[in-house]
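hiii, so i know i said id send this last week but things got crazy w the move. better late than never?? heres the sequnce for the chain we talked about at the cafe, plus the structure i predicted for it. fair warning i was half asleep when i ran it
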Amino acid sequence: MKIHHLRLYCRKLLQVRNFYAKVLGLEVQSESDQHCSFKIGYSLLEFRKHKDARPYHFAINIPTNQIDQAKTWLEERTTLLPFEGDPLIDFSAWDAVAMYFYDPDQNIVEFIARQPLNTEVWGNFGPEMLLGISEIGTPTTDMEKTIQSLAPSGIDKFSGSREVFYAAGDHEGLFIIVDQEKKKWFPVDDPIYPMPFEAQLTIKNKDYNIRYDDEVFTGI
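okay and structure toks below
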């Protein structure tokens, strides 16, 4: 699954805009007093202002040979969120290494290097090394209802179970479906809140414009 455009909502639009543009150095694609969007590899990340927005979790793929360089680069710009004292977190079951940080709206952002993709890129790490958005957290109180709403797309299970944590997709793009009453966001144990999002994506060579709201996916 490839995520081409992800639209999220935020409360602190100006602070969010400045963080991604000035701190992380992402290229601004469009902006107004109600939205801003940034180029992240093959993806477009968009934020729209909403007074009731709650934090999201999303992940960005980085080259498999740039883990240490990415860590150093991020530590020069923001504070990493460690797990058990270590800012580099090994997901051996996924053959991946990740690091996490907050943006100004308390979204939990993840940089993750997934070894099965074999995406080596040489050169100094910077915003141009970001490959694309690869995960979006999808809270629900009804795991089965949410998972079933994905069925028409034929998207495959990647990891987890249908009770608490279920990842659907592949190394390039995942929906992280979690029971918001039984789980908190890793690695900081922040409460999980349901928030809508929209995305343009490709699943098994078919293009979709989807929306997630009220615990179901529509547009599939």
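btw Residues 13-23 form the longest helix (11 residues). thought thatd interest u
miss u guys!!
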